[in-house]
Amino acid sequence: MFRPLVIAAIVSLYYSHTGFAQSDLFRDTSQPVNVRVNDLIHKLSLQQKVGQMMHTSPAIPELNIPAYNWWSEGLHGVGRSGIATIFPQAIGMAATFDDDLLLRVSSSISDEARAMYNAAVAKGYYQHYGGLTFWTPNINIFRDPRWGRGQETYGEDPYLTSRMGVAFVKGLQGNDPNYLKVAACAKHFAVHSGPERLRHEFNAVASPKDLRETYLPAFKALVNANVEAVMCAYNRTNGEPCCSNNFLLSQVLRKEWNFQGHILSDCWAIADFYQGHKIVATQAEAAALAVKSGVSLNCGDEYPGLIEAVKKGLIDEKQIDDALAILLRTRFKLGMFDPKEKNPYNSISMDVINSDAHRQLARETSVKSIVMLKNNGALPLKNNLSKYFITGPNAASVDAMIGNYYGVNPRIVTVLEGISGAIETGSQMEYRPGTLLDRENMNPIDWTTSTAKISDATIVVMGITGLLEGEEGESIASPSFGDRLDYNIPKNQVEFLKKLRQGNTKPIIAVVTGGSPMNLAEVHELADAVLLVWYGGEEGGNAVADVIFGKASPSGRLPITFPKSLSQLPPYEDYSMIGRTYRYMKEEPLYPFGFGLSYAKFTYSGIKLSTSSIKKGQSVDVEVTLTNAGHAEGEEVAQLYITNTTTTVRTPLYSLKGFKRMKLKPSASETVKFTITPEMLTLVNEKGESVLESGNFKISVGGSLPGSRSEALGAAPAQQVVLSMK
Predict the structure, then answer these.
(1) pTM
(2) Candidate list 157, 266, 272, 546, residue with the active-site label
(3) pLDDT in tens, 249-262
């Protein structure tokens, strides 16, 4: 943080040696940003300063500064701001296990964001969701499948979340040395994953070990990647509200990680100080506490209380100046006070918005996100069969394509549209929804079962949508504020599938939409093939058709464990990681983390280490031969897991430490190589300390989480070897 007195002296000296007008100094691009920021702050009244710390920052006419709304969304495409490319939901993007792809996706999103902003500013529009500060990505750990907002995350694993999150931030913010393309935000800091209905008053209790091992690593990775903003969460963590949490905001974020960007509150989280958590009595006290805790930007309407807080001596104006300075630096980095020609991103044209290239990228991402959970040989289908039947509540559903925090688009391709567009002329296709999303049909007449029996193949599009899972106010059909306290998919859908199966020997393909784990045990037994397609975005229907008809081989992998039932998990409100996720869950899952089938047949062989024994601080290479022993080309996601087998400290059963996507033609082989660094071998003890212990480590490389369940479902056995560290 700069020193205001020193900057003031520099400003005074500058005035005395140049002819630059004082009123224009903050617009002088030849000056250091801190000098310009300080000059602007000194031109503002207290009331104006406070206004600029609100997400709805008002205009300052006398300085020719227009209004600015800080709140924009870009979770999987520019959200809530007009026509934009809709990419698959974040959990689907995580299923690609492809951070290079995610970099391309987020670069496309930020291109569209800049183009939309440029067009809006040219018309004098400064609206909500129309800015350059994007409150994404959500890098909370999806620790429990009941959380309705888990779809916004990159899954349950801190390493995967870190890799995907860093790529997304880099693509959003761009690589210009002087300007941000847009400002990204890591949220929700920290230890935040439900329950939705309690989030304004809930206290999440996490041990030092769980904090450092699970909940904080992705945030640290994004800070190291220079993410511009961090959003503090609604809830308390270990007794303190996240937006006034001294340990999280001061000790860890600012001091330990040296975060230089701005901190903002989740929306109306400051009001929770006195309404939900009840740690203060008034708005003025809450506003003062938040600013003194390091929160520069208030999403909500609590910071006008700072004026009263100054009068009462709860905070002084210099503290407000310091907080505002951090915030304004972001606007300067975005080029908001600079001549248009200075910033290269101002030249991005509207042609990029939902361009053909971006639509193709959305389709590629959706294809790579699809996880094939079962295939008894029914897939791929030929696209010239005599008759197809497509049915199910989500076959023609736009909601099943977009998830939450979505944009709009004039050409959202549903599964019905994708399948119908892929079959050859002369083939016949019928469509009926067959059953409602989450309740029994009122009309008992059944016209679907007979149609399925006379069709060469039936495609049933089922599962859930954002009507049933999401944020507290988003999921209007959810009785539990967007959370899914019932792990099963709606009972009527399973009963419908049973009816279709009864007496029908023709192939039945279950296409399952949704953003979280669900009980698919009966679906798995009844269907000949099961595809998990998440919320596939604007090209989701075409992507499903590409996979079903064999234009592409499925290659998605599960970024989260599917338990058999909620009885295998600790209570939802329990934030201890014991018994949670693939890393600590000992019970056999329905579908393991990292699992996904292919039309290709991959095998792993010949694992070897560059040396079987190392000393502390040394790195070692592991390599294995990957072979496509099948008859179809496909992409495999090779995954590296490490297990510490000799430590006395509680450690994960497995920890993902690397992954690589590789495309192989039939009969082709390729060497997969990973470098195991000392950091990968460290463990976190109960005090939250990272330590490197001597002992033995099991190194596993394969296409899924190692174990009997993966192999029983069709995954190739992982190759394993032991590494000794002295």
Answers:
(1) 0.96
(2) 266
(3) 999 999 999 999 99
